[in-house]
Design brief:
4-stranded mixed sheet; disordered N terminus; Cyclin A, domain 1; 293 residues; 13 helices; single chain; mainly alpha; 6% strand; globular
Length: 293
């Protein structure tokens, strides 16, 4: 009997492992020029990357789209929708090469907000993003399509619902969404992180912080909210909250402010007729020159 149970357990374990390996396939494909144009126009994070890092971002986009379904619920989808979902996924884990989200199989895009029973445009609740947990929603994420687009259309408001929900998934990689990034779980970092969270939440509650109020609702929400701030307005975050910026930089393994400095310096050194480093294929004078001037 014991031997039989061991065999069954082995078969189940192998099936799980095999399904994850199939999910984590790395599809090598030419990145379409039309996709590159969409990213460059709509995703500021991508636009501000050095050329070689853009190629890595594109590779991550292809792998995500190949491994995770993006499904429209009562709404039509196009490639822009899928690229924005994929960008939301790639941005928080760009510091972890070849990252795959263990707890995600499908992203559902709704035509508007929804409630906890998944009813669309409910008058009771106004939810724009949710990570599924348990039952039929395990392995799924729901995003409001209009909110997803708004997050990328306005890159100065410190808010991006797609990035927010994928930070929750990154947080979940150690088994629970608790607001403590796995890389900060060591005693040397977890206590300073928790102390900083409590201090920052207290400032938010007293109206003495520029961190959005939703960050004060729970420690897990604090991480996702300041994560949005970190990727949307990194220079402002470093200026107003240097200690928080330093810890988030360690948690995400990204120094977004330094990346902006490097790209800005590189663009200033370019001549008008040089090829633009953004990867558009255009001359610098016809592409990003005005943004540097």
């Amino acid at each position: 009997m014991i031997s039989f149970l061991i065999i069954i357990a082995f078969v189940i374990a192998f099936s799980i492992f095999y399904s994850r390996q199939r999910k984590r396939k790395n599809v090598v494909s030419e990145f379409p020029v039309s996709w590159r144009k969409i990213l460059d126009e709509k995703v500021v994070f991508y636009h501000n990357l050095p050329a070689e890092e853009k190629r890595r971002f594109e590779s991550d986009i292809i792998r995500f789209i190949s491994n995770v379904r993006v499904t429209g619920i009562r709404t039509e989808l196009d490639i822009t929708d899928k690229l924005l979902v994929a960008s939301s996924a790639v941005i928080p884990v760009f510091g972890f090469p070849s990252w795959d989200y263990t707890f995600l199989d499908e992203v559902l895009l709704y035509p508007g907000s929804f409630d906890r029973e998944y009813a669309i445009n409910s008058k009771e609740e106004f939810i724009t993003g949710m990570v599924g947990s348990g039952g039929t929603m395990e392995g799924k994420m729901i995003l409001s399509k209009p909110a997803l687009h708004q997050g990328f259309d306005n890159s100065s408001d410190k808010q991006n619902v797609g990035i927010h929900e994928f930070i929750h998934l990154l947080d979940k990689e150690d088994g629970t969404i608790d607001g403590i990034p796995a890389i900060l779980n060591g005693k040397a970092y977890v206590l300073p992180w928790l102390e900083l969270i409590r201090a920052k939440i207290a400032q938010i509650q007293k109206g003495k912080s520029d961190i959005p109020e939703y960050g004060a609702t729970h420690e897990r929400e604090f991480l996702a909210v300041v994560g949005e701030y970190f990727f949307e307005r990194p220079q402002l975050l470093q200026q107003n909250h240097p200690e928080l910026y330093a810890l988030l930089s360690r948690a995400f393994q990204q120094d977004t402010v330094n990346t902006l400095k490097i790209v800005s310096k590189h663009r200033r050194e370019l001549h008008r007729n040089d090829q633009c480093p953004c990867g558009s294929g255009k001359k610098f004078k016809h592409c990003c020159l005005d943004e540097v001037a």
